[in-house]
Model the fold of this input.
Amino acid sequence: MDQLPTCALTCLVSAIQASSCSMADTSCQCTNQELNSLVETCVLNRCTLQEALFTKNITQTICGAPIRHQPANYLAISVSLMGIATVLVLTRLAFKRLFTSNGITLDDWLILLTWLACIPSSVSNHLLLMGNGLGRDIWTLPTESLTHFALGFWLMEPFYFFEVSVLKLSMIAFYAKIFPGKNTRQLLLWTAVFDVLFGAAFILVVFGQCIPLNFFWTQFQGKEGKCINIGAAAWSNAAVSVALDVWLLAIPLYQLRKLQLSVWKKVGVALMFCVGSFVTIISAIRFAALIQMQNSTNLTWDYYHVVMWSTVEVTVGIMCTCMPTMRLVLVRCARHIGGTTSQNYTHFNQDSKSGPGSTATWKSTEVMLIENVERGQIAIPQPTHFKM
Done:
C-alpha cells in the first residue's frame, strides 16, 4: 500500500474507516463491494488519470485479481467474417459482370465501396485496438498503449458510420431496381437522402467531439482538453440506425402484399427479404452493448463487445446484401451440374403506359436464360401478375 499515490491512499484510509473492515484485513477490503465503490469514486475525483490507473493496478495485484485477456476471439471472428464477405462480394461482382445483361449496377458499386472501406478499418482495428489492449483491463496497460488504443477507436468511428450508411444505400438502390413504382421510388429517394445526411452528421461529430481534436487519444498522457458526451452520441446513432433498418425491412414487405402469389410463395419471398432482419438484430445487440458500457472506466475491456458487434454488423450486412445474387449463382451452378441448358425465370417490368395517377400494371416475363434476368434478384418460378 505504500506504493499508492497520496491522493489514493487518503481515499483508501477514509473508506476503510467508514467500513466494517480493519486496516490489516486485506481480504475484507478486497471483497467489500461498498468499500471498493467508495474508493474508486474518491480516486477518480481526487487523482489524475495516470494515478487512478496506477492505483487500480496495485490494488488488483494485491487482491490477486485474475488477468483477463480475450482478443483472440475478436481476431477469429473478424478474420473469418471478413474473409467470407470478401468471397461473396467478389463472386457477386464477377457473376453480375459476366452472366447478367445489366452488368454491375449501382447497388453493386455501393456494396463494393462498403467492402473497400472495411479493409483499412480492419487493419486499424487489428493494429491499434487488438495490438494495444482490446479485451484487457485498462489498468494493466502502459500509457502508450492506451494512447494508441484510443487513436484506433477514434479512427474506427468514422469508418463505421461510413460503412453502415453506404451499406444501407446499397439496399435502397437494390429495392429501387426491383420496385420501380413511382411512389416507391420517391419513398426510397427520401430514405436515401436521410441516410446520407444521417451518416455525414455523425462523421462530423467524430471530428468535433473533442477540443482539441487529438485530446480523444492524448488524454491518457495528461493533456488538457474536453469532449462532449460521446456515449450519448453513440447511443443516438445506434437507435436511429436500428429504426432505419426496420424501415428498410418494412418497405419490401409492404410491396409484397400486392403480389398475387400463393401464401407459401409470399412466405418464400418474404423470407428472402427478412434475411436483412438479421443485421437489425445485430444492430440491436450492439446498441445494448453501448448502453452497458455507459460511464465505463475500463474502456479497453468494456469496448470489446462494441468493437466486435460493430465488425459483425458491417460484415454480416455485406453478406446479406449479396444473398440474392448468391441464389442466382447457386441456381446457375445447379443447372449446369444437372446438365440442363435452360430454365424459366420470371421478373417484373413496369408497364410503360403507366403514369402519374394511373394504376401501374406489372407484367411477368419468362426468361429462358438466367443471363437475361433484368431484375435479377426476384426470380419467381411461375408467371404472376399483380397490380399496385
Observations:
- Residues 299-337 form the longest helix (39 residues).
- The beta strands are 210-211, 226-227, 345-350, 361-367, 386-387.
- Residues 136 and 174 are 41 Å apart (CA to CA).
